[in-house]
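Example record for the data management plan.
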Amino acid sequence: MTRYVIEGARVFDGEQPIGVRTVEVAGARIVAVGAPVPAGVERIDGSGATLLPGLIDAHTHADLEMLGQALRFGVTTELDLFSFPSTMDALRRAAAERTDIADVRSSSVGITAPGGHPTQLRGSVNDPELPTVARPEDAAGFVDARIAEGADYIKVMIESGETLGKEVPVIDADIVKATVVAAHDRDRMVLAHALTIEATRAALAAGVDGFTHLFIDGPCTPDLVEAFTAARVFMIPTLNLLASITNQRLGAGLARDSRVAGRLPQAWSDNLGAQFDTLPTGNFDAALAAVRALHAAGVPILAGSDANYHFGARGMAHGVSLHGELQLLVRAGLTPVEALRAATSLPATTFGLHDRGRITPGARADLLLVGGDPTSTIADTLSIREVWRSGSRTAR
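Corresponding structural encoding:
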């Protein structure tokens, strides 16, 4: 069994900085934090660096290659928010057997209207036929089918297409409500795709547990903040996506970063530098202000990049864009420590992944060692020295 200690590094334990501590790993687990170094074990020098829990990206659409890319940038778990069983079954098996790719969870296929989102983004891709629900009484069957496919949570798509450049049919509100009831009866959370205020209000009325995007078509009014806090929901704002929709060209800056350039395949570097630009009238500063208001009101904010390629999401790249999201969360008003929680302990707790997201004895040894101190300068998360998944060091 592999045994080593990481010494000399500042430690952010998933909740707070705890100073310079020695962290001991045996096999796939952290076995001690701050204990004396045992004789004869490998010693890894973390001087001048900060040790973080492996990052959790709370919104992606994964494939095998991208799980490997995510891990190289310190993302040790991806939460996939729309997948096909034909793809996800193989990914789950691979993630269970290998330590050179990120771990993955998924909603399987999200519920949508016939002809609804995301079909308008898929173009000529030969997808399996999307299951749809025509009546509220059929929602339970949809949920059961997704659970049988291994869904860890349920996704509902409340999307008119107006923010993404092509209008599509929208799912009926009664079907959304019936889906939420059925999922909760089966102990599954429901996450809502909603990019407009109208869709957001519909999702809140239906009783969803969280949001996979922030709305981008208007400001966050005080009554909307009150609705969020009353509903006790969480938010994954995907500011990367909103920046791309409103043509902020933030991904291009990431692509030029010396810590990123040359480490991405050319296709992904190009995708990171591209833009949706489907809502040039959208107010990105208002989106930042909305995150600030929701966070100040106590709404949990989780970090998610919406990195994908198969759905044509321009302006993002697996692994890299989560670091960009952390920078945007700080720009929106979170402290660097709060942003780090949003990609470690908070998604772990929210999604019931109690074995990760923390540096504590007994936790999985999913670890990220970075130069500098991201608890004060969030951009230091990209200064990656080492990554471990389940105790195994990742080739870089």
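Summary line stored alongside the record: The first strand starts at residue 3 and ends at 7.
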